[in-house]
Amino acid sequence: MARQPLKTYLCLFAQQHPEFRLPELLSLASVTKSEVKFDELSYSKTNPLLLVHFPSEESACRIAARSLLIRSLFELWGSGRNHDELEASVNKLPSEFTDRYRRSDYTFKVVVRGFSRKCSAEKQLQLYERLSYLPLAGKVNLSNPDYEFHLLEDYGDNPNEAPMEPHRVFVGRLISHGQRHLIQKYAVKNRHFIGNTSMDAQLSLIMANMAQVKEGSLVFDPFVGTGSLLVAGAHFGGFGMGADIDYPLIHGRGRASRAGAESKWRGKDENVSSNLRQYGLADRYLDVLVADAAKNVWRQGELFDAIITDPPYGIREGRRKIWVKKYTKPSPT
Amino acid sequence: MKLLTHNMLTSHVKGVKNGFPLRILARKVEVRQIDFNPNFITRMIPRIDWSVLRAAAENLGHGQGLPESPPEEYESQEDFLKSAHHVLMEVEVLEGDLECPESGRKFPVTEGIPNMLLREDEV
Ligand SMILES: C[S@@+](CC[C@H](N)C(=O)[O-])C[C@H]1O[C@@H](n2cnc3c(N)ncnc32)[C@H](O)[C@@H]1O
To answer: Which residues belong to any copy of the Ribosomal RNA large subunit methyltransferase K/L-like methyltransferase domain (chain A) (predicted)?
Structure first.
């Protein structure tokens, strides 16, 4: 089979968890079965911009549809070390590429952004006018355009020592945003059942991406706590199974962990299953057990597609043994 | 506890050679409706010990209509997948015990949650 030539996209990453950007991207390429290539040497953890190559816009969008660390993806129209080089590179675009935009049957807007240095409104206007060489015949519509073109100016990695002129500039057409909105949607602060160590929504979703959870995956968390990782797994189509040694926690007993509510007892419905229900994922809850992760309770065989977990660390929620004596009286017959 | 979970759990009491399957001594069983997801059930069938599932379902009074073994090309047999879905996902043991087949040790199930913890001297 002839391989499709790869097309070039500009990836704008979020400025968080830079160490997970490339691992997440590679995992998502694998789980969505898309090819991806990039030059690792051109990547710096302190810089949010990276050129990446995908076989098609569709495969790029499949990745963005799951990524937490991609802020936006752009089809690359041109790049250069300065605005003259950028203009020359845009002018070299083949006509098949630009023909569609030389017709007038669409609307667009142009966005100008600087990294490590904010552009003044005046400078933005200048840059915007400088872009008149873009082969765009549509009408401008700022509120709801069919297409968005972005000029991205990179002033280096250090905002405190940003030069007057950018050292790289790019123009691209926005093709997709990543899934940053999920961070609010699954925010622990609005979660029904939380504990002292409930895993942050963003990290949970990144973990589910790295574990390549997909529709119909059986996901296990041996230190399930309040089930944040099962919520994240369920968002991507997984079915969640959990275990934890903390009997009262799993049974929704004991004191609430929410700030300001520490003196209250947990409600009867504070459990992992209600956390999934809160997001309309109730049917993706399988079971939780009270079990010690150090003792295997699973029969041999291939059972789970993914094990995602956040084991006890430090002193906040240390490894426990205390419940063992209290709750393991075999029940009367 | 769903029968899917039961199908994967084993006893781990010290000295026990084969702790699977755990015998279900049910005091309270409930059927809860769960959306049928044929893809998930299809993925689970190869991981399931079918005869154990069938015996467990029969023991709880929900074994009707389950074949001796999964049919060939089960992924396209919707009736089969639906009955598998019912016993794997919808039949829940809420109260009871899971008994180790060798040692007789009972793991209690309360509020639908199995407690698999052992005392120090049992592990
Ligand atoms: C860091 S917390 C996990 C928090 C969870 N990710 C959440 O979002 O709520 C670690 C959990 O491990 C449990 N744990 C400690 N020792 C354990 C053991 N030996 N076996 C199973 N769970 C254990 C604790 O009860 C605690 O809930």
So the answer is: 190-321
